[in-house]
Design a protein that fits this description.
With about 375 residues, the chain is mainly β. Helix content is about 5%, strand content about 40%. The chain has 2 helices and 30 strands. The strands form 8 sheets. A 5-stranded antiparallel sheet has the order 2-26-25-24-23, with no helix packed on it. Strand 4 and strand 5 form a beta hairpin. It is globular and about 60 Å long.
């Protein structure tokens, strides 16, 4: 798989792309997993941190070490989808949570979650709210404060996700907004990342800024240590065959254009859209390409590089993704090689339909271990170094 990724990345970088082909819808089927079904790269081990969670998606580590989990809508047709945040606390000797508390159930398609300015921030699909937060707190002390409203709501299938992230010095807040359609001309606020300036109390001041555009569905956000640079995962367009269009991870250039809906991977025109030559020529080539439809959800930096969860394909004849990968970075703070498998096993080797789960959210614990959310499986896994 790594060699294939390297070969495809080379072809794409040289301007040689696979042809579009017949599109296949292959929705996975969740089945019960056996014991010890996950495998890790050498130097790592994985164990179960929490289970029996109702559709966890994103997580954040509170200043006191408690784990806040966003429970929210998934692709699975389940009634009474949760729109809540729960707190995992009361850790035992193995540092597994023994207490679960409900922070709130009064949310609207929540996704992004951040701590800052003595508050807990949550991004609904159409607004950002916050509560005051003190270490040890597992329930709110009052009603939330509205920080931003009139955000374009929902979107194409799962493009309701609104992620948020503070910059490295907490002077501004980034917000992701996905597209309404798979491929179409849309409102300028769609398919991109916005930036908002903050005052010293963490409230938004001044007008919104379009920070990046042409991103069909930006999902994961992370600030790179040492550079303060913003990185983003983007799920690209569907229905162009198995190998188009590649999803990607990229450093985000301020006011950069990344192609959607007219082009991709630089100046490669999408034939389903009219030509926009001047705009197509400005399309930025992403830093890291993933196999098409693998659906990167979250990204986090560790000393070795960037960790990315690949939620898995539903628009491909042969399933891909369903794993966690590591993109190594060099001394120049840039990717130094293709994605490497870090955790695998959610997609059994014998299967092209049945799965054991789908990795989604990420969080790095104070001790350096990595929490990985399996949203379909309702679990959180803990990845640790063994060396």
């Amino acid at each position: 798989m790594i060699l294939l990724l390297a070969l495809l990345s080379y072809r794409w970088s040289q301007g040689t792309l696979p042809h579009g082909g017949k599109s296949v819808i292959r929705v996975p089927k969740l089945i019960e997993a056996p014991e010890h079904f996950l495998s890790t790269a050498k130097g790592f081990s994985i164990d179960l941190f929490a289970d029996k969670l109702n559709q966890p998606r994103k997580i954040a580590i509170a200043p006191d070490g408690n784990v806040f989990v966003v429970l929210t809508r998934l692709e699975r047709p389940i009634k009474n989808q949760p729109h809540a945040v729960v707190v995992l606390s009361g850790f035992d000797k193995a540092h597994r949570p023994t207490v679960r508390s409900t922070w709130t159930k009064d949310l609207d398609y929540p996704f992004g979650i951040q701590f800052g300015f003595g508050h807990l921030y949550i991004a609904n699909t159409d607004s950002i709210i916050r509560w005051t937060y003190a270490p040890g707190q597992t329930a709110p002390s009052g009603k939330p404060e509205l920080i931003l409203d009139h955000i374009p709501a929902k979107g194409y299938r799962n493009h309701w996700t609104r992620n948020i992230l503070f910059d490295s010095v907490f002077h501004s807040l980034f917000l992701t907004i996905g597209s309404v359609e798979n491929l179409d001309r849309e409102d300028s606020r769609r398919a991109g990342i916005e930036r908002y300036q903050l005052d010293p109390t963490g409230r938004i001041v001044g007008p919104r800024e379009s920070y990046a555009s042409g991103m069909r569905n930006p999902i994961g956000l992370a600030i790179q240590p040492g550079t303060g640079r913003l990185w983003a995962n983007v799920a690209e367009r569907d229905y162009e065959g198995d190998d188009l269009v590649p999803d990607f991870l990229t450093s985000v250039r301020p006011h950069g254009f990344y192609g959607w809906p007219y082009a991709y991977i630089g100046n490669h025109h999408d034939p389903r859209m009219p030509h926009k030559p001047e705009l197509e020529r400005t399309t930025i080539v992403p830093d890291v390409l993933f196999l098409a439809h693998s659906t990167p959800i979250d990204v986090a930096f560790i000393p070795e590089g960037a960790v990315v969860t690949l939620h898995g394909s539903q628009n491909r004849s042969v399933l891909d993704g369903y794993k966690v990968v590591l993109i190594p970075f060099g001394a120049n703070h840039k990717p130094s090689g293709p994605p490497q498998d870090l955790v695998t096993g959610w997609l059994p080797k014998w299967s092209n339909r049945e799965i054991y789960g789908r990795p989604a959210g990420l969080a790095v614990m104070p001790d350096g271990s990595i929490l990985i959310v399996d949203d379909w499986g309702g679990k959180i896994w803990r990845l640790r170094r063994t060396r």
